[in-house]
Amino acid sequence: MIYRVFVWTTLLLAIQTHAYIYNDSLLLIYAKIVPKVMVLDHTTHQNGQNPKRLCILYEKGDRRVAKQLANMIEKNMAADRKNRIRIEILRYERTSLCKRDVSAFLLLKTDLKRLRRAIDYAIKNHLLTFAYDRTMLRYGAAISIYPGKKVYPVINIEAVKKGKLQLDPFLLQIAKLYDEDAS
Fold first, then answer.
1. Contacts of 169 (CB under 8 A, 6+ apart)
2. pLDDT tens for each residue of 43-64
3. What whole-number distance in Å separates Cα of residue 160 and Cα of residue 113?
4. Residue 105, pLDDT above cutoff 60
5. Given CB 3.0 to 4.6 Å as the disulfide criterion, which of 6, 19, 22, 119 pairs with 61?
6. For residue 125, is pLDDT > 80?
7. How far is residue 78's CA from residue 96's CA, in Å, rounded to a whole number?
């Protein structure tokens, strides 16, 4: 009986705070891979950005996760000073407030309406999009990560073309291509 109360209380709290569940190991993988992939994005942006900027978009209840991910990225980039990346975190409702010199979005979990709005903004502004959840590739995110025996990026070529992104050919060689029919 106590167990049931605990489970229901936990579910209700998650629903009330609009929080999602994240895997710490997967967050660490993103923290290590996203900066490396950003370096392989040769898309020309408004001011040539040096350093590049990453905007992590999150839901109301996921601020702690977004901050944790930003800290993990900064910690894992420390040895690679020449490719330093600035990070900001914003709620999905404030997507358009990402600084004008942002070059990529990292999309944490959200509902479909906010996801589409963020992806449309990214496409219009030629921004690279990383999706924490691989199902976001179906809606136009450009890159996600597949953690299996080997970890590799999954690229949605249609999203890359639509966003007029210029990815390094090396990235295309090491990545798997997203196939909507196979998912």
1. none
2. 876 555 566 889 999 999 999 9
3. 21
4. yes
5. 19
6. yes
7. 29
